[in-house]
Amino acid sequence: MTEAWRPDGEDERRGAVGPVRVRVPAKVNLHLGVGPLRRDGYHELNTVYHAISIYDELTARRGDTLALTMEGEGTGELALDDTNLVIRAAHALAGYAGVLPHARLHLRKQIPLAGGLAGGSADAAAALVACDALWGTGLSRDELAGIAADLGSDVPFLIYGGTALGTGRGEAVSPVLARPTSWHWVVAIADVGLSTPTAYRELDRLRDSGAAGAPLGSTDALLGALRQRDPRVLARTLGNDLQDAALAMRPALADTLKAGEAAGALAGIVSGSGPTCVFLAADAASAERIAAELTAAGVCREARVAHGPVAGARVG
Ligand code: C5P
């Protein structure tokens, strides 16, 4: 008798036998409108998320327990215990699907910690997608995004990627239909991160004292610009309500923003709660020049070029 044929990488248990590798992007907010503080401690948001080509990679292998190791950005600083969002994501999926949370997970980080690029949220999204494939739980993206919402406001977006509208506390995501244009970005990474809750608290303080700029309203202008192919039009519509807070906490970011614009960027904004600054470039060559000038000017730890939109957490 011949043995029953099984597709590559599967055995009698459900899921993959070999390692599952998932790549997940960083996000920037092209528009981050922050509304009032809610009773649950979150702020109502009106945001446009955009996934860019700076990636973390999570590899999941079969194991007898749940364990996480890492290399790259933040190694030695990031706790790898039950408080880590990757571990929390694996537990959340296992609980939802009714399977044992057993996996050996290895994270290769390129997204900086506490940078305003949703690195931790990206890793949680990667863990959901990787463990779903490893354990053969076969959930849809929408089901994974439902679990993701409990892990953090940005996690559902990183399951989908692309460009998307975020409402609620950011967890309610709907895709933005835009022309298939690739935008060119320069990402200026700072030496030391900023805490997201502290940035939101600082914004509340600035607003109470009347020192923060007027809240960003509608996303209409930005969504209109995304339907065109002209980066100069898009540049005029970028905005971030948390920028005043990030600048108050880290005044040197004003020099970074100025240096990017002096180097030829069409616009520069703080990404999310900062301190990373992102610059829109006219094209790929311009992005390379701006990155080189920002690095030479010493206004950031490192400047990287990136493009967007890109897909969310994906196997392969
Ligand atoms: O959702 P997440 O855990 O990523 O949020 C981190 C912190 O950022 C929250 O605890 C809260 O202080 C702040 N936040 C907020 N309003 C949001 C999202 C996050 O105040 N919409």
TrEMBL record:
One Pfam short name: GHMP_kinases_C
- Which top EC class is given? transferase
Enumerate the active-site residues: K27, D154
The residue stretches assigned to a coiled coil in this entry are none
Specify which residues bind ATP according to the UniProt entry for this protein. P112, L113, A114, G115, G116, L117, A118, G119, G120, S121, A122
Pathway the protein acts in: Isoprenoid biosynthesis; isopentenyl diphosphate biosynthesis via DXP pathway; isopentenyl diphosphate from 1-deoxy-D-xylulose 5-phosphate: step 3/6
Ordered alphabetically, the record's keywords are:
ATP-binding, Isoprene biosynthesis, Kinase, Nucleotide-binding, Transferase
SUPFAM superfamilies, alphabetically?
Answer: GHMP Kinase, C-terminal domain, Ribosomal protein S5 domain 2-like
In the UniProt record, the signal sequence range is none
Q: Which GO terms describe its molecular function?
A: 4-(cytidine 5'-diphospho)-2-C-methyl-D-erythritol kinase activity; ATP binding
Instruction: Give the UniProt family note.
Output: Belongs to the GHMP kinase family. IspE subfamily.
Protein's recorded name:
4-diphosphocytidyl-2-C-methyl-D-erythritol kinase
The protein's organism comes out as Micromonospora inaquosa
